[in-house]
Amino acid sequence: MSEATASRPTAGNDTPMVQIDHLNKWYGDFHVLRDINLTVTKGERIVICGPSGSGKSTMIRCINHLEEHQQGSITVNGIPMNNDVKRIEQIRRNVGMVFQHFNLFPHLTVLENCCLSQIWVQKKSRAQAEKTAMEYLERVQIANQAKKYPGQLSGGQQQRVAIARALCMRPEVMLFDEPTSALDPEMIKEVLDVMIELAHEGMTMLCVTHEMGFAKTVADRVIFMDQGQIIEEAPPNEFFNNPRSERTQLFLSQILGH
Amino acid sequence: MTTNNATFRTEMIEAREAPNQSRGVIGWLRANLFSGPVNSVISVLVILAVAKIAWLALGWAVFDANFLGSSREACTGDGACWVFIASRFESIIYGFYPEAARWRVDIVFALLAILIAWLAIPRLPQKKWVALFALVGFPILSWILLLGGVFGLEHVPTRAWGGLMLTLTIAVVGIVGSLPIGIILALGRRSKMPFVKGICVLFIEFWRGVPLITVLFMASVMLPLFVPGNIEFDKLLRALVGIMLFWSAYMAEVIRSGLQAISKGQNEAGQALGLTYWQRMGLIILPQALKLVIPGIVNTFISLFKDTSLVLIIGLLDMLAIIRAGLTDTNWLGFSTEGYVFAALIYWVFCFSMSRYSQYIERRLNTGHKR
């Protein structure tokens, strides 16, 4: 345990990067998020797990306003969220997101996928944007496919491109929404390797995932959610070896049972 | 040696060539036309019928036809007498446009052809500027050239316009106008703002619910009754606006079907990257949606092109109307077949070109993400 901690960069100072206070959300009459409180400091790596329908995706999608909440407050990198479009766009420039189904733009090449928002949001020149894009594509080891279209790549390659695309905007926080759930088993590792590398570089990360190995390796905290609320929140060591809530114990026995 | 069910492979199997299938013309014929006695008989009968019809049609249109001459007396053969078309050719193209000014129409035709070719052929450079000219410079220039009245050009009122020139004017204005209006309407109909959405739904459902003939009739006959007498809109202009709005409603629904086929994740990915609504629509959603509905868009273009002939009912003489007017000429009674066949051929050439071009574009834009 002490060795594992030593290999990580120290988890940030105490600047809150993401601050969620008393967040409540309803889909019609259905109360999906119930009084969520969460503070993520700079450089912290959070893994969120829980059964399907527990609201974990919905919660991280609230952070960049892909979902609208009804009560409570969210502050990202010191910017308080409200319904103002300009404010939301400002927050989104600080937050990168990786989706379960990659959501690459199929009509653009890999390189164009990575340049689009640099050119249109950050107003960079094409040459500058391509330079940054190639840097990050290099880092996720897919630079040799830059001229291809997403449809010509495997799932694992597409997800690595999606990570590079998000990183090109130089975000302060990265959100991962089940990034390996749609991948063939053989391709999960290549994506996790990229995420682990990113974690070791000190990126603030919130990952919704069922990859418990990943949680053990890189997470500073594991959050367990059920029925729209945070049930348990603990460092991975404690979370896996000594879960306090019964619901967590049941969940862990289900997914680690084999 | 122990016996069990476990096996393992030590050498991988190399890929081999596919077994030799019957290829070539003979192979194709055998597989597709003569695969059995019943199919062979059907094939032979159909081929004979097609050959017979083609022979009759060619005989009428070419072998037994008259091409040269200037009057009815030249029509001596058993087949078609294209002298009728030839004698009316100028008015089929230009309508009643004054002869001395027809060079202006020729310039517009030539420019249009060059612009379309330039934009359609991928190898030619400077697409952006050519497109800009086609959408801004060309309409203004055409308007000045065709209408005249400035720069010493003789004024030619729109009531003198006619023939193919009028058909193309209406079709091009309709096509170029209805696409962007349709896009705006389609986006508006999917808007989350109830007011915008309501207006768009109302607009689309109104224009889709009335026949084009009614629209043209309203524009031509009813509208002047509602506006003060001293304000006068050009009749052609009114028809153009009517046609544009009418077809934009259809276009909107075609495009909306494309928008609905794009997964929500595409928009979310754009949002997550900080792109604004119009950037997301213009850079991510519309390029994909429009590509998906190219067949539907071109289908609408083709309908629009053919329905330009309806302007006849408000007294505008398009190509078909000019040909029909020619049929009532007492010198040329009884040549309606030639007239209609010729009109059909012209319409077909334009519509078929659009169809072929759309198929070419679809192939060209395919980036291999179809499943």
Automatic annotation (TrEMBL), chain A:
Pfam families assigned: ABC_tran
An MF annotation (GO) of this entry: ATP binding
Keywords: ATP-binding, Nucleotide-binding, Transport
Residue ranges of domain ABC transporter in the record: 18-252
UniProt keyword Nucleotidyltransferase, yes or no: no
Superkingdom of origin: Bacteria
Subcellular location: Cell inner membrane
UniProt record similarity statement: Belongs to the ABC transporter superfamily.
Protein name per UniProt: Arginine ABC transporter ATP-binding protein
Native source species: Salinicola rhizosphaerae
UniProtKB/TrEMBL annotation, chain B:
Organism of origin: Salinicola rhizosphaerae
This protein's record includes keyword Iron: no
Membrane topology: Multi-pass membrane protein
Record domain ABC transmembrane type-1: where: 164-358
Keyword list, A-Z: Amino-acid transport, Cell membrane, Membrane, Transmembrane, Transmembrane helix, Transport
Places the protein is found: Cell inner membrane; Cell membrane
One Pfam family in the UniProt entry: BPD_transp_1
Superkingdom of this protein's organism: Bacteria
Chain ranges passing through the membrane: 41-63, 103-122, 129-151, 163-187, 199-224, 310-327, 339-357
Major localization listed first in the record, in broad terms: membrane
Keyword Transmembrane helix among record annotations: yes
Protein name according to UniProt: Amino acid ABC transporter permease
Family listed: Belongs to the binding-protein-dependent transport system permease family. HisMQ subfamily.
